[in-house]
Design goal:
This protein is α+β, with helices and mostly antiparallel strands and 120 residues long. The protein has a single domain, classed as Acetylcholine Binding Protein, Chain: A (Distorted Sandwich). It is built from three helices and two strands; from the N terminus they run ααββα. The chain has a two-stranded antiparallel ribbon. Strand 1 and strand 2 form a beta hairpin. About 12% of the residues have low confidence.
Length: 120
C-alpha cells in the first residue's frame, strides 16, 4: 500500500482555509515556496502534542483456519494540523507535488505485533 498518496490528500485538506503572511496575489508556486522557506520536517508542529486523526477503511479480510492466520487489506487515512503551513491567499486550495510532500512533517504511524508471511 502507498501511504504517501493518502498523506498527500490529507495534507491538502489541512491547508484549506488557512492563513499566513503570503500576499493574496501570489501564485501557487510562490505560496508553496514561501511555506517551506523556514520549515523543517524534522521539527514537530508547535504546541504540546500533535493531534492525529486516523481513519481505516477495510478493503478485504482473508482468514485461513488451517494455520490460524489472517490477512487484511485496508486504506489508512491520516489528518493533522501543522500551524507552520498556514497561508493567506485568494487561492482556496493548494495542489502539491510528491516532492513537496517529502519536505513536510509526517507523523510516524506504526502497527505493533504485525506478523507478515509471503508476499506483501
Amino acid at each position: 500500500m502507498h501511504f504517501r498518496t493518502i498523506q498527500f490528500v490529507f495534507f491538502v485538506i489541512c491547508l484549506i482555509s488557512s492563513f499566513c503572511n503570503v500576499r493574496a496575489e501570489d501564485s501557487q508556486d510562490e505560496i508553496i515556496e514561501n511555506l517551506f522557506k523556514d520549515y523543517s520536517k524534522r521539527e514537530y508542529p508547535p504546541g504540546k502534542a500533535t493531534e492525529l486523526r486516523v481513519g481505516v477503511y477495510i478493503n478485504s479480510v482473508e482468514i485461513n483456519t488451517s494455520d490460524m492466520n489472517f490477512k487484511i487489506g485496508f486504506y489508512l487515512r491520516q489528518a493533522w494540523k501543522d500551524e507552520r503551513l498556514k497561508f493567506d491567499s485568494s487561492i482556496e486550495k493548494l495542489y502539491l507535488l510528491p516532492d513537496d510532500i517529502d519536505k513536510m512533517f509526517i507523523p510516524d504511524v506504526f502497527f505493533r505485533f504485525v506478523f507478515c508471511l509471503g508476499k506483501r
